[in-house]
């Protein structure tokens, strides 16, 4: 079923329907701008779903710059996207990514009481790039994400199309998938669930892949 509507209106509907059917969802929030407001994302965190979020890192630098020059529309857009005004203290796109990932992890823990896994993969390079965020429960299966994050050449945006074709059976299997099963099975023995006594959600988020490139990403 395809719902051709504002994602901020559809998100609560998805939550309601998933609860009625007892279904687990995989939701992909493909932001072209600052489309999915925090209120909608937060409602999805309460549901039984995993999230993939397209975080427009390079575009956010321009919006942040406009907001600091006093553009009211940009200020409102950032506040609605992050669900707070903590973005004002960010130095650029990477710090905004870390802020967003940290809020996702914190709210996941508060809403579900389970250890969060929040990790990002950067796609693209130079002037245009974005980060794809995975939000799910911590467990051995997250080794598959980390394995692919390290093995693939994500600076080339075409790798996303190729990966989708591979999963759909439209492309031949590549060598970089040969060790995936071993990585996941080995991760099952190594991985430990997140607990409140071991670390904070923010610390777990940082260790799971929210990386910064210091000095390279400043708002203009």
Textual characterization of the structure:
This protein is an alpha+beta fold and 220 residues long. It has a domain of 147 residues. A four-stranded mixed sheet has the order 1-2-4-3, with helices on both faces. It is globular. The C terminus is likely disordered.
- Indicate the mean pLDDT: 75
- Spell out the helices and strands N to C: HEHEHHHEEHHHH
Structural class: alpha+beta
Gyration radius, to the nearest Å? 18 Å
Major beta sheet, specifics? 4 strands, mixed
Unreliable residue stretches: 188-220
Helix content: 40-55%
Please give a quick description of this structure.
The chain has 220 residues and is of the alpha+beta class.
Which SSEs are present, and which pair or pack?
Blueprint: H1 7-21, E1 25-29, H2 38-45, E2 49-55, H3 57-68, H4 72-82, H5 93-112, E3 116-125, E4 128-137, H6 142-151, H7 158-167, H8 180-190, H9 201-207
Parallel strand pairs: 1-2
Antiparallel strand pairs: 2-4, 3-4
Helix pairs in contact: 1-2, 3-4, 3-5, 5-9, 6-8
Tag the structure with descriptive keywords.
220 residues; 4-stranded mixed sheet; 15% strand; globular
